[in-house]
Design brief:
It contains 15 helices and 27 strands. The protein is an alpha/beta fold and 544 residues long. It has three domains: 3-31 and 48-258, ANL, N-terminal domain (Rossmann fold, 3-Layer(aba) Sandwich); 311-433, Luciferase, domain 3 (Roll); 438-532, GMP Synthetase, Chain A, domain 3 (2-Layer Sandwich), CATH 3.30.300. It has a nine-stranded mixed sheet with strand order 2-1-11-10-12-13-14-15-16, with helices on both faces. It has a five-stranded parallel sheet with strand order 4-3-5-6-7. Strands 17, 18, 20, 21 and 22 form a five-stranded antiparallel sheet that branches. A hairpin with a 2-residue loop joins strand 23 (438-440) and strand 24. The longest helix has 17 residues, at 55-71. The chain is globular and about 70 Å long. Residues 27-48 and 535-544 have low confidence and may be disordered.
Length: 544
């Protein structure tokens, strides 16, 4: 079975049942944004507060978009990129692409114009569907996007170089296209990146997508009656693959465009959500709001909420202890995964193992794990090695990058780059990352990108960016800056210079000090982490 058949089945058996709900808490008096970049990506104040579609309407929307694509000559194996904020159209568009046999290529909404162009070229995409939040960025590189044959726009005020998604699909048939699909057919390309910051295109087939559905449902026991509240962005495998449990069983999914604690609890209450996936900062925010007396849990209907699970970054055990104090009846789970392993679930804690909070867990359903030494041999329990995983969700390859593929996949095993150890009970704990990627609030930051930007400052001799522990975000980016002899530089000047970068990439700490390098010229980041991590930092403004 391929994943599009699940949608067809749901439309047949649960046709009149609500499949998706979109909630936008903002209004003309409250200029909150979709889910994170408040000052950069504002919600449309005219957008309706709540929209919903049934499973039958979901399937019809997917069929109409599929037929639009086919009418434009898009065929099996072509690539269609998606650049949208979370909205009720997102998933029908994704499935419409899959129904044509083309590959869906979800793109990070944080990408700059140059990154958009880079990823479109890297994935060999010839089609792009985008929303109003991206008009300026896409327009700025439009003349350079020679390979894009079709631009589709979701929203009003359609740019002159694009076609209206709503108008064009309105003319298309609602009958499913007859394109034969196999589990081995390519289905989607997702993007990842190493410490260099240059994305890799991750290729998955239909079998990987189906395996994610099966793993998710096995872990969390979704039924037709469950309601899943989804807050993170759908371009990310984490959000979408957790929602796949709802797809697998015909349950309702709710897309909440906002992260304020009262919005989350209100959505849980109003929509009768039973399963909620949260990131660590949101858990922290909810608990802090409760402790400050800003939220009274008795004002919400929360008795049906049965499962809270957290992922995308290490979870402090103390945080879950606090959560259970307020929500003693909740089951809890945490999930580990990579885009290369079709997202979360290759390792998971398990709802029955809350006594092991702090571990990432045990092998997920249909997955195998090992912890190995550099020579590939399995290490003993409680010894540190690299975590490797094997299962039906391992990527097919890094698209058009055989060298990187060979480095990451060996004998069917995916080498994660994460250092871990296993305790005597078989539970896996992350120790450190082999790569230097910083995970802040569930998002990856790539130090080299920030370092390259800072080195443009005329007073900076050298710079290294590392992650420092942060109670709320997990980690924050800290820039260790070595100032040129005879030059002066202050923290305020550095912060002002960084305003040209997207807010989420800006260092949250600035430390003036020498940047150590080894004899081969590489920055000694382990030494920097040893010096600065876990110690109290003194804010300073230094002149050299």
């Amino acid at each position: 079975m391929v994943i599009t058949e699940l949608l067809t089945r749901n439309a047949q058996f649960y046709g009149d049942k609500v499949s998706l709900v979109e909630i936008n808490p903002s209004d003309k008096h409250d200029k909150a944004t979709t889910w994170r970049e408040y000052e950069l990506i504002e919600s449309n104040p005219q957008e309706r507060y709540r929209r919903e579609i049934t499973w039958r309407e979901f399937d019809v929307m997917a069929n109409r978009f599929a037929n639009l694509l086919l009418s434009r000559g898009i065929k099996k194996g072509d690539k269609v990129a998606i650049l949208l904020m979370n909205c009720i159209e997102w998933l029908p568009i994704y499935f419409g692409i899959l129904k044509t046999g083309a590959l869906a290529v979800p793109m990070n909404y944080r990408y700059s114009a140059d990154e958009i162009k880079y990823c479109l070229d890297l994935s060999e995409s010839e089609n792009l569907i985008f929303g109003p939040e991206f008009t300026e960025r896409v327009a700025s590189v439009h003349p350079e996007l020679k390979n894009i044959k079709n631009f589709f726009f979701v929203g009003e005020d359609v740019p002159e170089f694009a076609d209206s998604y709503r108008i064009m699909t309105g003319y298309c048939s609602s009958v499913a296209p007859s394109v034969p699909l196999l589990e081995t057919d390519d289905a989607a390309i997702y993007f990842s990146s190493g410490t260099t910051g240059f994305p890799k295109a991750i290729l998955h087939n239909h079998r990987a997508l189906m395996s994610s559905c099966e793993t998710e449902q096995n872990h969390h026991g979704q039924t037709e009656n469950d309601v899943f509240l989804c807050i993170p962005p759908l371009y990310h495998t984490g959000a979408k693959m957790h929602w796949f449990g709802s797809l697998y069983t015909g349950g309702k999914g709710v897309l909440l465009k906002g992260i304020r604690p009262e919005w989350i609890l209100s959505a849980v209450s109003r929509e009768k959500a039973t399963i909620v996936w949260l990131l660590v900062p949101w858990v922290q925010d909810i608990l802090d709001a409760i402790d400050r007396g800003e939220i009274d849990l008795s004002e919400y209907e929360l008795s049906q909420w049965r499962l809270m699970h957290v992922g995308a970054q290490p979870v402090p055990p103390s945080l879950i202890k606090r959560w259970i104090e307020h929500f003693p009846n909740h089951k809890y789970d945490t999930n580990y995964g990579l885009s290369e392993s079709i997202g979360p679930g290759c390792v998971h804690l398990g709802v029955e193992n809350i006594h092991k909070v702090g571990a990432i867990g045990i092998p997920g359903y249909n997955w195998e794990t090992k912890i190995v030494s550099p020579d590939g041999k399995e290490v003993a329990k409680n010894e540190v090695g690299e975590l490797i995983v094997k299962g039906p969700g391992v990527m097919k390859c890094y698209f058009n990058n055989p060298k990187a593929t060979a480095e990451s996949i060996k004998d069917g095993w995916l080498y994660t780059g994460d250092m871990a150890k296993m305790d005597d009970d078989g539970f896996i704990y992350l120790v450190d990352r082999k790569k230097d990627v910083i995970i802040t609030g569930g998002e990856n930051l790539y130090p080299v990108q920030i370092e390259d930007f800072l080195r443009k400052h005329t007073a900076i001799k050298d710079v290294a960016v590392i992650g420092l522990p942060d109670e709320r975000l997990g980690e924050i980016a800290a820039a260790i800056i070595e100032v040129k002899q005879g030059e002066t530089l202050t923290e305020e000047e550095v912060n002002a210079f960084c305003e040209e970068m997207p807010r989420y990439k800006r260092p949250k700490k600035v430390i003036f000090a020498d940047v150590p390098r080894n004899p081969t010229g590489k920055i000694e980041k382990p030494k920097l982490r040893e010096i600065y991590c876990g110690t109290r930092l003194v804010e300073a403004q230094t002149t050299k």
